Amino acid sequence: MSQAAQSERAPRRSQADRTAETRAxxxxxxxxxxxELGFQRTTAAEITRRAGVTWGAVQHQFGDKDGILRAVLQxxxxxxxxxxxxxxxxxxxxxxxxxxxxxxxxxxxxxxxxRSTFEILLSLDPPDQNGREPVWQGEMMNAWSQIWSGAxxxxxxxxxxxxxxxxxxxxxxxxxxxLRMIGTVPPxxxxxxxxxxxxxxxxxxx
Length: 206
Fold this sequence. Notes:
It is built from 10 helices and no strands. The protein folds into 2 domains: 13-63, Arc Repressor Mutant, subunit A; 67-205, Tetracycline Repressor, domain 2 (Orthogonal Bundle). The longest helix is centred in the first third of the chain and has 23 residues, at 15-37. With 206 residues, the protein is mainly α. It is elongated, with a radius of gyration of 21 Å. The relative contact order is 0.10.
């Protein structure tokens, strides 16, 4: 078949499809660069090189570098919520719900994507001197709490105790991820730690 005939039969992508593809390439380039090189070395030139686009295309999509970084965070939060949405509801045994919840959460916290977003968060939203939580923290807790409430609606814990257990769970996962980032933990040592977290949650939620 001639090249012309193949071109005629190939479906044409819409402008929206091309725009979405370019956007995805840019976001992926940012995540990969920060995971491999660190935040400071992820320059505009590095982003465009990895994405295979011009800086003008980046600006058209996101405005500036801060716009790209915030888009990466939004995409990460959406993926985080999507992973947690796979956790079964109260019709499943508590052990199964806890196991699924921790496993899905660790898929996020143990990923290169989280490593990149963690560095972005530290750069874009430093701790507030007046004690106010950064916007990203509130967004993450909202997504987390909604899934938690659905999965463990039958728990006898009071709201305050439930919130403390949620924060404890996040702290445990972030801590394991941080140890991996600084290289003090081998690549796959987390099974025992996650099992301990699961058993703790089953005991406290039950």
